[in-house]
Design goal:
160 residues; four-stranded antiparallel β-sheet
């Protein structure tokens, strides 16, 4: 019996150690604070994550300055569904603005990553630019964005 429990503990220890070595856990991701800018130096093939705390019917906007990095940006809702995604080409420097009306209370997860190729050692900046109760206009814009995502997903599924 002791051999089996020792093996079980050893296996559990290996799983925990391996899980800790594969990037940042979403649960451990820092929470973005309103108007507090952050910088991040991405590592090729590794995602960086942050959390955005929101109440149901909150509107929030995230501003990301990619500094010309080829960023893949994904926003995940508290239920695990994809709320938004954006891909920034290399050498584009425009500020990326992502906004969302929270359908549910909880923590959204913002994930930024770069490709596995040669990526210049540059930092990108991000901040939670705005958080407030959603207006009717915010709700309409959010509905339109959702409808566009559904149409794109349907077109992709039809081509498959």
């Amino acid at each position: 019996m002791e051999t089996r429990s020792s093996c079980g503990l050893l296996s559990l220890g290996i799983v925990v150690l391996c899980a800790g070595s594969f990037g940042q856990s979403q649960a451990d991701a820092p929470v973005l604070s309103l108007q507090v800018p952050l910088e991040s130096l991405p590592v090729a093939g590794e995602a960086r994550t942050w959390q955005i705390a929101a109440q149901a019917q909150d509107f929030f906007r995230i501003a990301i300055q990619p500094s010309g990095l080829p960023l893949k940006i994904r926003l995940t809702a508290p239920d695990g569904s994809e709320a938004a995604s954006v891909t920034n080409r290399a050498d584009e420097t425009r500020t990326i603005s992502m906004s969302q009306v929270a359908a549910q209370t909880g923590r959204f997860v913002l994930e930024c990553s770069v490709g596995n190729g040669d990526v210049p050692a540059r930092k990108f900046k991000l901040r939670l630019a705005e958080r407030r109760p959603a207006t009717d206009a915010d709700q309409i814009v959010d509905f339109i964005k959702h409808a566009e995502r559904v149409n794109v997903a349907a077109a992709v599924a039809q081509q498959s």
